Amino acid sequence: MSTVVALVLLLAVTAYAVFGGADFGAGFWDLAAGGEERGRRPRALVEQSIGPVWEANHVWLIFIFVVAWSAFPGAYGSIWLTLFVPLTLAALGIVLRGASFAFRKAVAGRRARTVLGAGFAAASVLVPYCMGSVAGGIASGRVPPGGKAGDPVDSWLNPTSVVAGLLAVALVAYLAAVFLVWEARGAGEEDLARYFRRRSVVSAVVVAAVLVVGLLVVRTDARPVFDGLTSQAAPVVIAGALCGAGALVLLVRGAARGARVLAALAVAATVVSWGVAQWPYLLPETLTVADAAAPSGTLTAILVAVGLFVLVVAPGFVLLYVLEQRRLLPDEGVEDAAEARAVPGPG
After folding, report:
1. Rounded to whole angstroms, how far apart are CA atoms 98 and 95?
2. Which residue spans traverse the membrane (predicted)?
3. Range of 279's domain?
4. How far apart are CA 323 and CA 313, in angstroms?
5. What residues does 283 pair with on adjacent strands?
6. Residue 259, CB half-sphere, CA atoms under 13 Å: how many?
7. Is the distance from CB of 105 to CB of 334 less than 8 angstroms?
8. How many Å apart are CA 3 and CA 326, to the nearest integer?
C-alpha cells in the first residue's frame, strides 16, 4: 500500500512540475521580455495565457504537502527541518508572485506597475529554483531520517542542489516557451509565435546542456541516484530524451501542437526518472518508502481521499484546462487601471 501512495505522490509532483512549471516559466519570459514598450506584447500574452489557471495550479502543491505529511510523517518532518530555508523562500515567493500578478493591473502608476511586475517575474524564477534545490538536497542524501534536522546551509547550497535548481528554472522556461508558441498562434499573432519559438529552441539547448552537467555532478555528489538513473530509470531517461528531441524537431518545423505534448512529456519524464532512480528510498540510502510509511489505516484513508479527489476535483481541473485551451474563459481579474484612466469619460 505504501508503494501505491508513493506513486500517487510522484504523479502529483509531476503534475505540479508540468502545470505549475508552465505557469512559473511564463513568469520567466515576463522577466526576460525587456523594457516596457519592447516587452508589452509578450507580457500581454503571458498574462492572457496564465490568468485563468495560475491559482488552480497550486492545488497540486497543497495536495503534495497533505499526502506527504500524512503518509510519510517522519520523512516530511526531516525534509522541513533540514530544508526550511528554500521551502520558506519558495512559500514567500509564491505569495509575492500571486500578489504582484493580481495587483499590477489594479494600479495605474508606472512605477508601481514596474515594481509589481518585477516582483512577479523575480518570484517566478526564485520559486522553481528553490524547489529544484530541495529536490537536490533530498537526492544527494543530505536529509537525515527520523524527523531530525540536517545542515540548514549545505543541504541546499551544494553542487547537486545548485544544478537541480538551475535545471528546474531551465525546464519551466522551456516548457512555457513551447506553450506560448501555441497561445500566440491561437491568438493569430504569428510574429509572437516566431518570437517564442526561437526562445523555446534556445531554452531546449540550455536544458540539454544543464542535464549533461547535472549528470556529471550527480555522478560524484549523489552516486546512488546516478546509479539509478543509469540502470532502473534508464528507460524513462531515454524516453524523456526522445520526447525532448522530437519536440525540438517539431519546433524547428513549426508544428506547435505536437511540440507542446512532447515538451510536457519530456519534463514529466525528468521528474519521474528522479523518483524511479532513488526507488525504493524516500531519502536515498537511509529511509525506504516502506519504512517511512504511516500505519496501514492512515494509508487506506489517504487512498480513499485520493479516490474522492479523482471523482470530484479532477473533472473540474480537466474542464478548466479545456475551456482555457479553447479560449472560452473571460479575462481574469480586474480591468486594467492604466487603460481605464487613459480612456476619456463621457461628455
Report:
1. 5
2. 6-32, 78-103, 115-139, 159-181, 201-220, 232-252, 261-281, 301-323
3. 2-289
4. 16
5. 287
6. 26
7. yes
8. 37
Question: To which residue does cell 519530456 refer?
Answer: 266
Global pTM reads 0.88
The C-alpha cell of 96 is what?
509575492
Q: Tell me if residue 282 falls in helix, strand or coil.
A: strand
Non-local CB neighbours of 198 within 8 Å, separated by 6+ positions:
none
Retrieve residue 100's grid coordinates. 504582484
CA atoms within 13 Å, Cβ hemisphere of 141: 15
Q: Is residue 345 packed enough to be buried (19+ CB in 10 Å), middle (13-18) or exposed (0-12)?
A: exposed
Q: For residue 206, give the CATH number of its domain.
A: 1.20.1630
- Within a domain: residue 307? no
333 falls within a domain: no
As a whole number of angstroms, the distance between CA 99 and CA 206 comes to 30
Number of structural domains found in the chain = 1
Q: How many CB atoms lie within 10 A of CB 312?
A: 9
Q: Angle formed by the axes of helices 59-71 and 73-82, to 10°? A: 120
Q: How confident is the model at residue 253 (pLDDT cuts 50, 70, 90)?
A: confident
Domain for residue 345, yes or no?
A: no
pLDDT tens column, 255-271: 767 888 899 999 999 99
pLDDT at 346: 42
- CA–CA–CA angle 132, 138, 226 (5° rounding): 90
Taking CA atoms, 96 is separated from 6, 49, 124, 333, in Å, by 31, 19, 9, 17
Could you tell me the three cell numbers for 207? 536544458
Q: What's at 284, amino acid-wise?
A: P
My answer on whether omega of the bond before 280 falls inside 30° of 0, hence cis, is yes
Length of the chain, in residues: 347
pLDDT of residue 126: 94
